[in-house]
Amino acid sequence: MELFEDVDILSQLKKSFWTALDSSSWKDKKDALDFLSNLINDKKLAKGDYTELVVKLKNLLTDLNIFISETSLQIIDKLSISLKSDFKKYSFMLLPTLLDCFKEKRIEVIREVEKILTNFIKYCFAITDEHFLSELVKIFHQKNGKLKADILKFLSNILSTQTKEVANSFSLSYSSILVKLLDDSDKDVRTNSGHILGYLVSVLGEVHMAKYLHNIDPKKMKLVSLIEVNSNTKEKIDSTKQIENKSIQTLVDESKNITEAPIQLSTTATTT
To answer: Distance between terminal CA atoms of the chain?
Structure first.
């Protein structure tokens, strides 16, 4: 039995509200966003067509006024939590703009974006979703090192909460991309890529990951370090204990010895 009835907020958004969101006055937009934020607080929102509202909020994410952009983020967070999987189509609409927010220097903005993307991955799509991956590939082709490094850090944090099965799917989709990022001009990008690859080796084992790592220059291999699997990880990995005393390079060399021919990078991993 539902404790709360679904609330239809869309019918409560009058013409004056929409006019205020389009206003050139930051005060008008602030008042409209405050009204909306209070309206949806602690509410179980009814299903409906939120497209117009989401588009307006998306546009406000790039507003020059800090209060307007941050409040818009907070409202998107509330909407995604309340609507859960019903927010899926809107999550894809917002992805490019949200990912671009990682350029921000304000830590509050980064944390809010991370919260929203975490909700998306929990309720709307998997971390290995093709659409999500395609947007990330676009980001990784950009020159902005901070943008790429912060997104990699976010992916690392999310991956550490997933099961071994998800880590396996992640390795198929992302490993070749991560290997390429080991050659990035930005140090943090190289480091964060190596961190994720090291985590995957720890979780999935050396044989599984060697097909992605066997062509890496030994100097770059130093970026890939075995990561201790957190005890809170949903899937406990026994293989970590078996390989903790070996270097990644040793593991890759051993995998070469058991293969009759060099293993090519998986085509699945390079598909975007």
So the answer is: 43
Cβ-based neighbours of 201, under 8 Å, separated by 6 or more = 209, 213, 224, 226, 227, 243, 248, 251
Which residue, chain included where needed, has tokens 């998997």? 126
* 78 vs 96: CA distance, rounded Å: 19
267: left (phi over 0), alpha (psi -120 to 50) or beta: alpha
Structure tokens that stand for 261 in this block: 């021919």
Residue 40, CA atoms < 13 Å, CB-side half-sphere: 25
Residue 151 CA to residue 244 CA, distance in Å, equals 27
Which ranges constitute the DSSP H helices of the chain? 15-21, 26-40, 51-60, 66-83, 88-100, 107-123, 130-140, 145-159, 164-181, 187-204, 206-213, 218-221, 239-243, 248-257
Q: Hey, CA dihedral for 132, 187, 219, 224, is it positive or negative?
A: negative
Listed residue (53, 127, 124, 114) closest to 92, CA to CA: 124
Structure tokens at 251: 């593991």
C-alpha span between 223 and 210 (Å, rounded)? 15
Task: Report pTM.
Answer: 0.83
The DSSP code sequence of 29-58 is HHHHHHHHHHHHTT--BPP---HHHHHHHH
Q: What angle do CA 45, 50, 53 make, to 5 degrees?
A: 110
pLDDT-derived band at 252, boundaries 50, 70, 90: low
For 108-155, write each residue's pLDDT tens digit. 999 999 999 999 999 999 999 999 999 999 999 999 999 999 999 999
